[in-house]
Amino acid sequence: MTEISSPRIGRSRITVLAVQPATQPFRIVEIDGDFVGEARSVTDVLEIAAAYGIVVHDLDDPDVVRWVGGDKFTWGRRQAG
Prior knowledge:
The protein has 81 residues and is α+β, with helices and mostly antiparallel strands. The chain has a 4-stranded mixed β-sheet with strand order 3-2-1-4, with helices on one face. It is built from 1 helix and 4 strands, in the order βββαβ.
């Protein structure tokens, strides 16, 4: 038997961290564990990835992009309520 018994746990090349509080909220973007920029939209994430030679075909693929503290639609501060 050549399969392993535990599920494959991969590491995404791109990690988009939680929204940072600021006048214009942003999310920190890491590629291969290194800080590479700040994003204020999905477009920014795609542009940063392209600048590092990464073509993203599916923003929902956890092998490519890991979203921390929200998903690709989370770009503002959470409202209390």
